[in-house]
Amino acid sequence: MDSFCNFVKTFNIFILEDNINKAVELIKNARQITAFTGAGISVESGIPPFRGEAGLWNKYDPMVLDINYFFSNPKESWGIIREIFYDFFGNAEPNKAHFVLAEMEKNNLLESVITQNIDNLHQEAGSKTVHEFHGNSKKLICVDCRTVYKVGEISIKVLPPKCKNCNGLLKPDFIFFGEGIPQNAYIASVDAANKSDLFIVIGTTGEVMPACQIPVMAKQNGAKIIEVNPEFSKFTNSITDVFLQGKATEVMGKLSDALF
Ligand code: APR
Q1: Separation of 167 CA from ligand 1 center, angstroms?
Q2: 50: Cβ below 6 Å to ligand 1?
Q3: Which own/partner pairs from 74-82 qualify as long-range (CB within 8 Å, at least 24 positions apart)?
Q4: Which residue from 152, 214, 230, 254 has the highest number of Cβ atoms inside 10 Å of its Cβ?
Q5: Which pTM was predicted?
Q6: What is the mean pLDDT for each group of 10 consecutive residues in the chain (260 residues)?
């Protein structure tokens, strides 16, 4: 049994190395590259994913992030939101995978990052063009006058926090269930899907609508798809051309070694 496990392990390493070489070829020959990231890229920064055994939705009721529920129960929703997004992983730092994407952009190998994450870690790693499909948890927005605050500017000790201008209810500047995608991010993402000839999809199940349509759109427009994930996703057997099976930091580290 041990020798069989070793064989499988060696075989998988061989496949990963081979696929890294294929990915590097695609990257070197691409005209415009976009990265599309999900919760998995931040797992190694200590932020748990949403789905799966260790997922947030196994511990918390997603109802607290329903927009109607939030308006009816702002104090209760805010209590859980503070625990998850500010106390629990507010201090997470970018990891190797975030840094490699920033390095690729700096070296003109990456046009933009489209992220479903709200953790701001791409920007903290140095990425400049980031389209935040679901918004950003490091900002708060007044639901009445739309004033935007940085998290540090407003105390969230007493809940719910209120707007300094109009005393309206403040809400994290990420989208809740029942809200639309921020228009600018949506338009920029569709544009990237129309123009890119290579998408690098990292750490996402491909299950969340409408975000999951973006890589599919890119594929339909002729883009090649490189996917990084330790598990198979909805994309793996449908649109993925080169599957790099492994954790984001490990795989992006190998890509970086091969590229720079
Ligand atoms: N490296 C890369 N990928 C990983 C890692 C890792 N270390 N660990 C887990 N993953 C993969 C999982 O295999 C899974 O495919 O990351 C994905 C995480 O899945 P989800 O938590 O469902 O995240 P995602 O598909 O990005 O959807 C997140 O769901 O509730 C919404 O709006 C919320 O943006 C959020 C979206």
Answers
A1: 36
A2: yes
A3: 74/159, 74/160, 74/169, 75/159, 75/160, 77/160, 78/156, 78/159, 78/160, 78/161, 79/159, 81/172, 82/156, 82/159
A4: 214
A5: 0.94
A6: 61 80 97 97 92 85 93 96 87 96 98 97 98 97 97 93 97 96 98 98 96 98 98 96 97 96
Nearest CA to ligand 1 atom 24: 204
CATH superfamily, domain 1-46+93-133+181-260, is TPP-binding domain (3.40.50.1220)
* Residue that is written with structure tokens 């020959």 in the block: 29
Ligand 1 atom nearest the C-alpha of 118 is 34
Ligand 1 pocket check for 58: Cβ under 6 Å: no
Going by alpha carbons, the residue nearest to atom 4 of ligand 1 is 40
Question: Which of 16, 130, 204 has the most ligand 1 atoms within 8 A of CB, as the residue to mutate?
Answer: 204
Catalytic residue list: 134
- Which residue from 158, 128, 123 is spatially nearest to 139, judged by alpha carbons? 123
CA distance 140 to 158: 15
Report the separation in Å between the CA atom of 76 and the middle of ligand 1, taken as the mean of its atom positions: 26
pLDDT of residue 49: 85
